[in-house]
Design brief:
By secondary structure, this protein is α/β, with parallel strands linked by helices. The chain has a single domain, classed as TIM Barrel (Alpha-Beta Barrel). It contains eleven helices and 26 strands.
Length: 520
């Protein structure tokens, strides 16, 4: 991940209309029109050796007085278990294409220190030392796997394509997946096989991952995946996808791949689209116009999915390849980080929670296209769910969105029509619906600041026996949690009325809600 040119590209003036006349919102749920299964993997996370993500965030060390599990911050593990976190991508990001996995194995006291990819960025450029600048490799493959096991999520490893070799990649797969005692590397691992399925073949290969053209990268992808040891593990390869709206990258890669052989599509499990909606104003201080501007940029994700999907279909008519949108979020300017070495650290506000909700709902509505997604990043960086420093720890409003939305996991997304006024491309009210058995989950965001929104939900093809609701709201979209007030923003119960095929509720301004329905 890189502070990319698309932040500037998306920063053109987006003039917000004046206050919208108050109106009602409605949802028509079409129970018999299924879209696809919502994979839990679309609620995935991203861990990079960047600033305070690993050191001070996840890893506190086995000798720390901070409660830990084998050196891993226990409060983080407990919180991730609660939201059923499904997947963690590691070790980058741009860091991945400078990482030698061998540096992070064996006795920790013997592991080498290496300069971090990000050592010249932001405040790190002025620092003379520290783990964020010179990585001690205390957190390597075994520690990452232990973190995944404790947190309950699957591992997703990004391989080094820019400065590594195909042999290095093969050996890493061997180290992770070989049966114990079957190979030298499998024996060196010292544990049962990790059975890692998901492998990214480089990262952002159009930029920090090698400055390739899509045609050049297609050759590298073919070379790295031509032969990889399987060990009876179903390996899923994820090539580096486009930078936001760059359709030429998608077209160039798939065209070159299919030109060599249409069968090569079988090597591609997911297409790694990256999109950061950037910022408008500051992370905490912003005007109403800047609030609407950033939310409008966030929902651009839907257009990116549909436009790249169309291009992919030119070469993959059966659409075997789905999206793995493994970096997304709002990326604010520096100034709100809780420690100087927390590069790209930012306070998460209710505005960021709305961005998370709008984005996850887009993924759900496109469950037939999106197989994986990873918010950037897990802790202390960009669109984080957590902030930690030394012995202090908190969850951001983003965390509560993931907690509220977890009931969608493995549900069947069904078509729904959300009707309310719009601010240009930004809906005042939008969301998604899924069904599992006789349980229906509706999640939604109300983006308007001017007042509450009465909502009526109509079930087409069914009735409601009972319902309950939660809402995440605050007195301002700038509201956020702090170490002194860690529960300043948290969900509360929301009244919902049930009558046959109708449900009614009222959403506060700038709020996120989850409605859980037992169908009759």
């Amino acid at each position: 991940m890189q502070r990319r040119n698309f932040l500037a590209a998306s920063a053109g003036a987006l003039v917000a209309p004046r206050a919208i006349q108050a109106a009602n919102g409605s949802v028509t749920v079409l129970l018999n029109e299924q879209i696809g299964t919502i994979s839990p993997l679309v609620h995935g996370h991203f861990v990079e050796h960047l600033g305070g993500v690993v050191y001070d965030g996840i890893w506190v060390g086995e000798g720390s007085k901070i409660p830990n599990i084998a050196g891993i911050r226990k409060s983080l593990v407990d919180a991730l278990r609660k939201i059923q976190a499904p997947l963690f991508r590691w070790p980058g990001g741009c860091f991945a294409d400078s990482y030698d996995w061998r540096d992070g194995i064996g006795p920790r006291e013997k592991r080498p220190k290496r300069v971090n990819f990000w050592e010249r960025s932001g405040a790190l450029a002025k620092m003379e030392g520290g783990k964020a600048k010179y990585d001690p490799n205390e957190f390597g493959t075994n520690e990452f796997m232990r973190f995944c096991q404790e947190a309950g999520g699957k591992p997703y490893i990004a391989a080094n394509l820019r400065s590594g070799t195909a042999r290095d990649f093969n050996d890493w797969v061997d180290y992770c997946n070989a049966p114990s005692g079957a190979t030298t590397l499998g024996t060196q691992r010292g544990t049962a096989p990790f059975n890692v399925e998901f492998w990214g073949i480089g990262n952002e290969s159009w930029g920090c991952g090698g400055d390739f053209t899509p045609e050049e990268y297609s050759v590298e992808f073919r070379r790295f995946t031509s032969w990889v040891p399987r060990f009876n593990v179903p390996l899923k390869f994820i090539p580096a996808g486009p930078n936001g709206p760059d359709l030429n990258w998608s077209r160039g890669f798939f065209q070159a791949l299919v030109r060599k052989s249409p069968g090569l599509l079988n090597r591609v499990w997911g297409w790694a689209l990256h999109y950061y909606c950037g910022t408008a104003g500051g992370p905490v201080e912003f005007s109403n116009d800047e609030y609407y501007e950033l939310l409008t940029r966030a929902v651009r994700m839907e257009d990116l999915i549909t436009s790249h999907w169309t291009v992919m279909g030119e070469y993959d008519r059966e659409h075997r390849v789905k999206f793995a949108i493994d970096e997304w979020g709002a990326w604010h300017r520096a100034g709100s980080e809780v420690a100087p070495h927390h590069l790209f650290g930012q306070i998460g506000t209710m505005r960021d929670a709305l961005i998370a909700a709008l984005t996850l709902d887009i993924f759900h509505r496109h469950a037939d296209k999106v197989a994986m997604a990873n918010v950037a990043q897990l802790i202390n960086c960009i669109h984080s769910l957590f902030i930690a420093h030394e012995d202090k720890f908190l969850v951001t409003p983003n965390y509560h969105v993931f907690d509220m939305y977890k009931d969608h996991h493995n549900g069947k997304a069904v078509r729904s029509v959300f009707a309310a006024p719009r601010r240009g491309k930004l809906g005042v009210f939008d969301g998604s619906v899924s069904v599992q058995g006789n349980k229906l989950v509706l999640t939604c965001a109300h983006t308007e600041l001017s007042g509450p929104l009465p909502v009526e939900i109509t079930l087409t093809g069914g009735t409601a026996r009972s319902a309950s609701a939660l809402v995440l709201a605050a007195d301002s979209p700038k509201a956020h949690n702090t170490f002194d007030r860690p529960e300043n923003v948290k969900p509360r119960a929301l009244k919902v009325e049930v009558s046959g095929d109708k449900l009614r509720l009222e959403m506060p301004p700038a709020s996120v809600a989850r409605v859980s329905v037992e169908l009759g």
